[in-house]
From TrEMBL:
PANTHER family: STEROL 3-BETA-GLUCOSYLTRANSFERASE (PTHR48050), STEROL 3-BETA-GLUCOSYLTRANSFERASE UGT80A2 (PTHR48050:SF13). InterPro entries: EryCIII-like_C (IPR010610), EryCIII-like_N (IPR048284), Glycosyl_450act (IPR030953), Glycosyltransferase_28 (IPR050426), UDP_glucos_trans (IPR002213). This is Activator-dependent family glycosyltransferase. Belongs to the glycosyltransferase 28 family. It comes from Streptomyces kanamyceticus. One of its GO terms (molecular function) is UDP-glycosyltransferase activity. Keywords: Antibiotic biosynthesis, Glycosyltransferase, Transferase. It comes from the Bacteria. GO terms for biological process: antibiotic biosynthetic process. Residues 22-268 form the Erythromycin biosynthesis protein CIII-like N-terminal domain. Residues 284-429 form the Erythromycin biosynthesis protein CIII-like C-terminal domain. The keyword Endoplasmic reticulum does not apply.
Amino acid sequence: MRVLFTTLAAATHLHAQVPLAWALRAAGHEVRVASQPDLVDDIVRTGLTAVPVGRALDPQQWADVSPLSEADLNREENIWNAQGGIAWDLFDLCELRPEHLTYSYMHCVLEAWISHNFRQTSSPETVDDLVAFARQWRPDLVIWDPTTFAGAVAAMATGAAHARLMFGFDVLGRMRGSYLDALRERPPEHREDPFEEWLGPLLERYGSAFSEEAVVGRWTIDPVPSSLRLEVDHPYLPVRYVPYNGHSTIPGWLRTPARGRRVCLTLGRSFRELLGGDRASVAELLDAVAELDIEVVATLNAAQLAELPRLPDNVRAVDFVPLDALLPSCSAIIHHSGSGTTQTALAHGVPQVVVPALLFDNLLKARRIEEAGAGLHVREGQAPTATTLRDMLVRVLEEPSFTRRAQELRREMLGTPSPRELVPVLERLTEDHRGGTFAR
């Protein structure tokens, strides 16, 4: 069969798709990966075939987030005032408390994401190009990143089966379910759905009608361990998370045993590349580890290093090292709650100290890791000071329960079907959807 992957133009989002794409290709299926032109080189370096669509992604569109329209603010005035007028607070998809999930609150959050993010990742140019390619190539199955709704539109326009492939927790699916429940309780004349208002006209352009599969897919392929997954009324296909860090080389120093306990410190790539900056101060992080009897491997780029007066003697700074190779030698990791970093730490059973960047599902991942007993996290509104971080790291290193729970989650992940084992499931579901005939 022919399988089309679509992803946001960010290397870490692509990396989440590569193992399954490889598994499908190895099984004899044709695979293409579509994204904005600025991701083409990264796609090609994976050995997969790239399809550039739309214009290059402009991260500045997200870095300079402005408030919503006056009408939106008036509709949600109380929430806006209560949250201090900070635009990023309208992007909190991690809220799970039922008493806070009012129709107005959820409508404002979903509208914010559509207006300032999803309309850019699935711009009209991107959708047009992707639909045109899909109509020419005729994929049987479209697998799309949950932030690239162009994939769903292309699948529905061509009659292909389609599924989301999660890179992290399904916070959007969770809020969407609560939102639909709230929507049904409103009078028909007041049932405004921002997703239908946006995607409905797009789908009509290609002869399709809006339905809920345009938002969450027909199924969702989920690499998050089942014990950590959010409760969502939706069909999920569990798959084992297989780390992929891009093209990389194992450095010589990593081939020698660590000097005592080793700790990885990383703030990841996505938040800096797409939005600029980190929540945590690098200087505070380094102060937290400076006096401890550990070896620290810190992934810091030139810009971060330039802002530091000095590196502690127990810190090795490297611009990049594959986490999949580094973490097996580590006793703990300090990180920003990025999906690839969190999942790779889980895959290797490494306990975590999390300073979550407040974006998408990062805060929720941090909470769930702590609730599972596999780490600790800096809470929202709490300053990530050197003292706080040091105390957390010492606990994670000294209390055996953190390592034990992290290892239990690793065993759970190893018991989940691998990408290769998921391929026959996708073949069957796609064949059922397409009436038993694959496009050739």
